């Protein structure tokens, strides 16, 4: 029988946002302690961890301080100094997922090229070092331009239907890809352990806010045929096998009108498409990630209940100390599970929390989530 001294492991988390916050909570359940690195004092994750190093993700000295104070270093974001992390790994520090995998995925062009070279289906694309009207026209509209680095939550992505939309271009090194008129946008979370064991969560359906490219509602499981759901899981596993790495990865996909599946993007971390797993699955994504990087057996990904999840975004035009309205009415609805992230200030469309709604029927869960979305508003104290 194995015996572990407590704490089981000291986990360093680069990034103190909501993903880190939920990871710290899972770590405490597993008997781990955490140290968070984030530039914002009393970050959402730092509040829960109790120990935070205040510093930038690109500060080599701060990254070294974190790695030296922990047994294993992981991250909840992608915009990190991977050169320092690769050096730390070379020196014997455990960084998981591997910073080499992170470096590959950070650059959306190298990510796409790696997947395409391995035969993973994606939308056709070409590099775009310097945008020009001629190059865009030659590729053909409609198209999607993606910044090679730094894009997330709708940033760094521009959808152009016609040449008239060229004014919306991103003036940075990028790639352009064919616009996919998807029937549905899906995501599959894949966990891979130190021993190579892979576990997938059931495919989920993602519904995005028009024009903002921010996840507005998630339905779990996705309303797709069984063979499509199985194919999505298989594609996600093959994608992770190409990239390698240990931990939880989010694989976003398009299901085309012809029934084909194309990988859109991969996130080498826990993912917004897995928040529902806290209530709806046997093992939530955050515990699963920790199990993987510590070297514990992966847990069951079985779903216990259909679920709908909505992000709680800061109201347009509002900034300052958050003020939430409608909370009592929302919590009176059966099956509603509220998560607030402890962010000190709200801003338009900033992720301030999420709500998961459980129900025996997925359509009932969706309708309840829509009611909650109409009830809850996060405004700012300094708004007139």
For the structure shown, list the relevant keywords.
nine-stranded antiparallel β-sheet, Rossmann fold, 12 helices, D-amino Acid Aminotransferase, Chain A, domain 1, about 375 residues, Dna Ligase, domain 1
Number of strands: 20
Uncertain segments are none
Give me the number of helical elements: 12
Second rung of CATH, namely the architecture of the largest domain: 2-Layer Sandwich
| CATH H level, superfamily name of the largest domain | ATP-grasp fold, B domain
Describe the largest sheet: 9 strands, antiparallel
Strand content: 25-35%
CATH class division of the largest domain = Alpha Beta
Distance from N terminus to C terminus (CA atoms, Å) equals 62 Å
Shape: globular
CATH topology of the largest domain: D-amino Acid Aminotransferase, Chain A, domain 1
Secondary-structure content class:
alpha+beta
Mean pLDDT: 95
Number of folding domains? 3
Account of the protein in words:
This protein is α+β, with helices and mostly antiparallel strands and 384 residues long. The chain has three domains: 10-95, Rossmann fold (3-Layer(aba) Sandwich), CATH 3.40.50; 124-178, Dna Ligase, domain 1 (2-Layer Sandwich); 182-380, ATP-grasp fold, B domain (D-amino Acid Aminotransferase, Chain A, domain 1, 2-Layer Sandwich), CATH 3.30.470. Helices cover 29% and strands 28% of the residues. It has twelve helices and 20 strands. The protein has helices at residues 18-29, 44-49, 60-68, 82-90, 99-106, 108-117, 133-139, 226-243, 277-280, 285-294, 327-331, 362-375; strands at residues 10-14, 33-38, 52-54, 72-75, 94-95, 125-128, 143-147, 157-160, 174-178, 182-192, 198-200, 204-208, 215-220, 247-256, 261-267, 307-313, 322-325, 336-340, 351-358, 377-380. The strands form four sheets. Strands 10, 11, 12, 13, 14, 15, 16, 18 and 19 form a nine-stranded antiparallel β-sheet that branches. A hairpin with a 5-residue loop joins strand 10 (182-192) and strand 11. Helix 1 crosses helix 10 (285-294) and helix 4 packs antiparallel against helix 5 (99-106). The longest helix is centred in the middle third of the chain and has 18 residues, at 226-243. The radius of gyration is 21 Å and the shape is globular. The chain starts with 9 loop residues before the first strand and ends with a strand. The mean pLDDT is 95.
